[in-house]
Amino acid sequence: MQFTDKNILIVGASSGIGLATARLLHGLGASLYTASRHQSAELAELNTTFFSLDVTQPLGSALDALPEALHGVVYCPGNIKLRPFERIPLDDFRGDFELNVLGAVQVLQASMKRLKKAGGASVVLFSTVAADTGMAFHASIATSKAAVEGLTRALAAEYAASGVRVNAVAPSLTNTPLAAALLNTPEKAEASAKRHPLQRIGEPEDLAYMASFLLSDHGSFITGQVLPVDGGMGRLK
Fold it and tell me: What is the pLDDT of residues 131-166, one digit of tens each?
């Protein structure tokens, strides 16, 4: 895969899957534009064009300095709040929806003219295995990520004729800072690994490779899909 002369925006690039994707694309020659609330030291090392951005707030002119043509957008923000349904405040449902769905809507509305101008562009959103496979204590995140999947298909249909592909990646538990509380002891990590048919949890690089493939010319015949990268958890027993 080569990304020379391609402009890619990664939202949520300071850590985890977003950072792994930025590192991979940087090595493949992409011109990177990154956005998150704060720029991490690891992201700063890549010398990307950085935008300070809180996607739960109105974007205003925050992304106006993007180049005229964008060849790809990756939207990575997310969180993990697992608790019994009856103890999830309504504000948590709203917060998850604002972060995962409305944030993506804002970014894509601000980017779509640039994506269409590229003459062949790709959008990668992130869902979760829990949106398609019922999992206890995942009601809020599964609800918002299911909406992400609906948004993926709707936008893929709407913009196919404009040459803009839209896909989503659905990971299972991945070794990122967001998952630290679920993996902070050897016993927890081992139990999580054993729940996957492949007997391990995901690494950020696993998702970065899939996102980069979907952004690349090698993925140019794929749109409207939700692609699981979940160690078999969603389909195998």
Answer: 999 999 999 999 999 999 999 999 999 999 999 999
DSSP line for 46-80: TT-EEEE--TTS--TTTTTTS-S--SEEEE-----
3-state secondary structure of 232: coil
pLDDT in tens, 88-98: 999 999 999 99
Residue 152, token pair as written in the block: 């993926």
Domain boundaries, the chain: 7-229
For the 7-229 domain, the top CATH level (class) is alpha beta
Measure the CA–CA gap between 197 and 193, rounded to whole angstroms.
Answer: 8
Interior/surface letters 113-141, b for 16+ CB within 10 angstroms, e for the rest: ebbbebeebbbbbbbbbbbbbebeebbbb
The angle at the Cα of 232, spanning 226 to 237, to the nearest 5 degrees, equals 125
